[in-house]
Design a protein that fits this description.
Blueprint (H helix, E strand, L loop, with lengths): L5 E7 L3 H4 L1 H6 L3 H10 L5 E7 L9 H5 L3 E5 L9 H14 L2 E5 L6 H7 L6 E12 L13 E11 L9 E8 L4 E10 L2 E6 L12 H14 L22
Parallel strand pairs: 1-2, 1-3, 3-4, 4-9
Antiparallel strand pairs: 5-6, 5-7, 7-8, 8-9
Helix pairs in contact: 5-6
The structure holds zinc ion.
Length: about 240
């Protein structure tokens, strides 16, 4: 029997790549195109892409209903994402178990803030050298990742990061300025799983880093919904048999 594939939608705002030549040069097919391309190395994924300026922001109900994991990259146009799309995403995560992976500046995206319930505010600064530390080697998202790896240059995202306490902090960042950041965090909401991951500034090549790619592949598999084998309802399930009185 053919294994059921994980249906992934890679969503990107897709503005910088169209307006800034420097970004277009790094990501000629868009950040979504780059992510979709390396994910296609996994044989068990069915991948589609969606962008902000498509009808319904590229994510009508029908697309979200058929998405197991939604990957999100946005930066300058968070406010342009329609509120009803955000509500639909949140419902799919909480009640349908759809996985959500927020990349880089998605910390300020409407879906991330709505799903985890926080401002997502953080401190930031100039781009500099970053070391990503593997803080939870036992976690499935850390599979195949060494104790640390280097990112040549990344935008400084620093603590305090205003998020609810994550379930797990899988990766932590160190910057040459001395700042630190909870760079890879997991959350669960309803029956859904969420992963936030810091690298991915549009003028840097982090999405070409083999470890960043491995982490995103791992995160897709980890955030994919469990096979519940029954319908999730907000009412007490019936017990098959009861003790006789
Ligand atoms: Zn950035």
């Amino acid at each position: 029997m053919a294994e059921k594939k994980i249906r992934v939608t890679v969503w990107n705002e897709y503005r910088h790549e169209r307006n800034v030549p420097e970004v277009a040069e790094i990501y000629p097919k868009g950040i979504h195109g780059c992510i979709a391309e390396f994910l296609s190395e996994c044989g068990d994924l069915e991948i589609r892409t969606a962008t902000l300026d498509e009808p319904d922001n590229g994510i009508p109900d029908e697309v979200l209903d058929n998405t197991d994991v939604l990957i999100w990259w946005g930066h300058i146009a968070h406010a342009e994402v329609a509120d009803d799309r955000v509500e639909y995403i949140k419902n799919r995560v909480y009640n349908g178990g759809m996985g959500f992976i927020g990349c880089h500046s998605a910390h300020h995206s409407k879906p991330f803030r709505e799903i985890v319930g926080a401002t997502g505010n953080l401190s930031w600064g100039d781009e500099m050298h970053e070391i990503m530390w593997n803080m939870k080697p036992s976690h499935p998202i850390a599979a195949g990742i060494p104790d640390h790896f280097h990112l040549d240059m990344e935008e400084l995202y620093a603590e305090p990061f205003y998020i609810p306490n994550p379930d797990d902090i899988v990766f932590g960042s160190w910057y040459e300025s001395g700042h630190i950041f909870r760079a890879g965090c997991t959350f669960t909401r309803g029956v859904g799983k969420i992963f936030y991951f810091q690298p991915g500034h549009e003028t840097r090549k982090s999405f070409y880093n083999p470890y960043v790619r491995q982490i995103i592949k791992n995160a897709v598999h980890w955030t994919a919904p469990n096979d519940f084998g029954y319908e999730i309802k907000n009412e007490a399930p019936r017990v098959d048999s009861v003790v006789e009185e």
